[in-house]
């Protein structure tokens, strides 16, 4: 079968097109015939070697890239009772979706409901799961709660805005351009601002009467984190769930005290998908909202396995404004 692998870390040039045997599922696993694979920043980080020493995401080289996919069950392993050949399924945070087939632990797979295209399932699961646990479990958004969403025109940012509004929260958003700010407003943001080299924090303070927001969702990292502190109310919560601008390596905890006795957390999706019950409940929420129209996702690009390097370059250069991008495996 066709696959895209890496043997070493680096840029798009390290992607290797390789024909490998179709894997076989062991006990508790399913073999999925991949129809679509999502392209995410986690794929870029995997390729760059960011997870080389990670204990949460244990992926090294050599490996087949791609941690999100959708397709049909081709074969089930022993002790798998809840899936059968032909079932439409999707999954994420299991590497190997840049291929024609992938073996996945059955508990990580979810059934895709009739009426939802497989390409949408592949584009929505990782981003949807992430936004879901951030809004519901970490931010605990509700009426009367205010939040700031950075990278608001990105795939996760757009979903966070929509979920936050559904939960009754007031949403402030930041983006790098006015065009992207318009995307955030279209998704429901009450106020959309530009970063302006950190001036967003002063604007948030002014807009909230000097108080600051209850929760900040920061996926940017180095370029924004300390200004995120300034935008947060006393004893508020800063959620640093990404670091696309680089990691903050010189943070003294006393800064959190000086900023107003803040809480800072760095969550990861894997810890919020501990079992099949949680995984399937989150998927039901996301898929259900996509089907009834209360959640919208736009697919910005469609590629083949032969043009994965182009997809990676587009994502890294932000040409897709962070929206979900697809690799068409077949």
Describe this structure in words.
Helix 2 packs across helix 3 (155-166) and helix 2 crosses helix 8 (276-292). The strands form 3 sheets. Strands 3, 5, 6, 7, 8, 15 and 16 form a 7-stranded mixed β-sheet that branches. Strands 11-10-9-12-13-14 form a 6-stranded parallel β-sheet, sandwiched between helices. The chain has a 3-stranded antiparallel β-sheet with strand order 2-1-4, with no helix packed on it. The longest helix is centred in the middle third of the chain and has 21 residues, at 118-138. It has 9 helices and 16 strands. It has 330 residues and is an alpha/beta fold. The chain folds into 2 domains: 2-126 and 273-328, Medium-chain alcohol dehydrogenases, catalytic domain (Quinone Oxidoreductase, Chain A, domain 1); 142-267, NAD(P)-binding Rossmann-like Domain (Rossmann fold, 3-Layer(aba) Sandwich). Helix content is 29%, strand content 25%.
Short characterization:
The chain has 330 residues and is of the alpha/beta class. It contains 9 helices and 16 strands.
């Amino acid at each position: 079968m066709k696959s895209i692998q890496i043997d070493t870390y680096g840029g798009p040039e390290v992607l290797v097109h390789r024909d490998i045997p179709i894997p076989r599922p062991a006990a508790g696993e399913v073999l999925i015939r991949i129809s679509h694979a999502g392209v995410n920043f986690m794929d870029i980080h995997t390729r760059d070697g960011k997870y080389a020493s990670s204990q949460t995401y244990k992926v090294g080289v050599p490996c087949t890239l791609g941690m999100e996919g959708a397709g049909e069950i081709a074969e089930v392993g022993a002790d798998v009772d809840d899936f059968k050949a032909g079932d439409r399924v999707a999954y994420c945070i299991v590497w190997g979706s840049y291929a024609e087939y992938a073996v996945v632990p059955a508990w990580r797979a979810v059934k895709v409901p009739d009426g939802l295209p497989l390409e949408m399932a592949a584009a929505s699961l990782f981003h949807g799961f992430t936004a879901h646990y951030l809004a519901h479990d970490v931010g605990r958004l509700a009426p009367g709660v205010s939040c700031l969403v950075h990278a608001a025109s990105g795939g996760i940012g757009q979903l966070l805005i929509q979920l936050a509004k559904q939960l009754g929260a007031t949403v402030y958003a930041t983006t790098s351009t006015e065009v992207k700010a318009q995307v955030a407003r279209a998704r429901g943001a009450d106020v959309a601002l530009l970063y302006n080299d950190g001036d967003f924090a002063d604007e948030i303070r002014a807009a909230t009467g000097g108080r600051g927001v209850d929760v900040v969702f920061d996926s940017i990292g180095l370029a924004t984190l300390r200004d995120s502190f300034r935008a947060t109310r006393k004893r508020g919560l800063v959620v640093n769930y990404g670091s696309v601008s680089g990691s903050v390596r010189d943070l003294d905890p006393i800064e959190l005290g000086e900023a107003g006795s803040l809480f800072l957390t760095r969550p990861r999706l894997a810890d919020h998908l501990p079992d099949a019950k949680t995984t399937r409940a989150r998927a039901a929420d996301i898929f259900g909202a996509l089907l009834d129209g209360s959640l919208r996702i736009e697919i910005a690009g469609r590629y083949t396995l032969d043009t994965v390097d182009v997809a990676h370059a587009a994502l890294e250069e932000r040409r897709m404004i962070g929206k979900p991008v697809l690799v068409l495996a077949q």
